[in-house]
Backbone:
């Protein structure tokens, strides 16, 4: 899998400054749910085709997702060559070959490279993996208590821990250093994806 990537231990030009941040905004079709979550973990602005949009597209031929891409100025990403061939397909649509589905991490790296995306580690884990909203820290003790209760946090967790909430769907998040915690598992995933992007040559700033 890694053989698909151009691996380099050091940049070709150490004195070269990273390029200006290019903030591409993606729209992924419904088959790319996992890739959507990974990109959000890496701080990317990624929308996902809804179940209703997918139903209208597949059952009725109503390409509402295409119009949404245009309205929100998003780059459409799909695995369907048939969608690419439609006359009303948004310009700049990116197709991931089904051949790469077993190695989706490699496909992700190639996609970021293709669009000139520059990763910003400061933005990692700042987007809700559920809805793409912004994750905001909560400081009020009562709000923190409510979030921990609503999302069934382990009872032994301290009220002094860092607690967050999505400004869109109100999904609750909290930080815990225990290796078995969901927070630690997501951090491990973010680290793994980041290392893969680095090895593949995706530029980083910050």
Residues:
């Amino acid at each position: 899998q890694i053989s698909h990537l151009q691996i380099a231990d050091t940049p070709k030009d150490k004195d070269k400054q990273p390029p200006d941040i290019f903030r591409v905004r993606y729209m992924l079709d419904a088959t790319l749910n996992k890739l959507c979550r990974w990109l959000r973990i890496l701080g990317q602005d990624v929308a996902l085709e809804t179940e209703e949009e997918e139903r209208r597209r597949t059952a009725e031929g109503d390409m509402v997702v295409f119009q949404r891409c245009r309205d929100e100025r998003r780059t459409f990403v799909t695995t369907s060559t048939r969608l690419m061939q439609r006359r009303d397909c948004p310009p700049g649509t990116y197709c991931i070959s089904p051949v790469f589905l077993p190695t989706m991490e490699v496909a992700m790296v190639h996609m970021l490279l293709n669009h000139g995306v520059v990763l910003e580690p400061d933005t990692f884990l700042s987007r809700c993996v559920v809805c793409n909203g912004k994750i905001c820290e909560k400081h009020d003790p009562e709000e923190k208590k409510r979030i921990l209760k609503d999302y069934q946090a382990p009872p032994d967790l301290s009220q002094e821990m860092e607690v967050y909430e999505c400004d869109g769907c109100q999904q609750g998040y909290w930080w815990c250093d225990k290796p078995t915690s969901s927070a630690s598992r997501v951090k491990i995933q973010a680290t793994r994806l980041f290392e893969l992007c680095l090895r593949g040559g995706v530029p980083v700033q910050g």
Remarks:
- The chain is about 35% helix and 10% strand.
